[in-house]
UniProtKB/TrEMBL annotation:
A molecular function (GO) term: rRNA binding
Record's function text: Forms part of the polypeptide exit tunnel.
Disordered: annotated span: 58-78
Annotated family: Belongs to the universal ribosomal protein uL4 family.
Name of the protein described by the UniProt record: Large ribosomal subunit protein uL4
A GO cellular-component term linked to this record: ribonucleoprotein complex
Gene: rplD
Gene Ontology process terms (BP): translation
Keyword annotations of the record: Ribonucleoprotein, Ribosomal protein, RNA-binding, rRNA-binding
Source taxon at top rank: Bacteria
Organism: Moheibacter sediminis
Any Pfam family hit: Ribosomal_L4
Subunit structure of this chain's protein: Part of the 50S ribosomal subunit.
InterPro entries in the record: Ribosomal_uL4, Ribosomal_uL4-like, Ribosomal_uL4_dom_sf
Amino acid sequence: MEIAVLNLQGKETGKKVSLDDAIFGIEPSEHTVYLEVKQYLAAQRQGTHKAKERAEIAKSTRKIKKQKGTGTARAGSAKSPVFRGGGRVFGPRPRNYDFKLNKAQKKLAKKSVLSQKLKDNEIKIVEDFSFDAPKTTAFIDVLKGLGLETKKTLFVLGESNKNVYLSSRNLQGTKVVSNLELNIYDIINASEVVFLEGSIESIQENLRK
């Protein structure tokens, strides 16, 4: 299929980009998308939580009361979890929450969300642009020209562009990534996905492999 390329004012330039039906026209796999999002969010967790257990508590080791004759249960250490200030039983330990997902599944998930976005008319192709220097007002003008100033938008560049990235950094609801940084969570999280013309071929090439 073909989709028109827009300029920064939102007008058609007369050029069209060909989108591979095997990437942008498949039947979405919801379960694969779920697994990919779950894996992405799990990988973001630091996993640095830690509670001290009985052996790690710094307290006296003396027997706190005599063994018999108190009328209560025997107790031999203030580190016991039954006492306030004692160690925690089976407390959280540092761990890695990430899990493996096959490359084929990750590609299928990305194809699924791209196909759904195109089906919902939430994808735009814009001619390549750059700025001479970082300037937020210049990026705001781009958003206004495309009618996206009130929408959560993801811009996908063909290659890293520091000036474009810095120009968008202070704008809430707008994110700029290169085609190599593109991930499924950002695509789903955006109301509109704007691909620069130069990014399409490399994205399609990566997903064909």
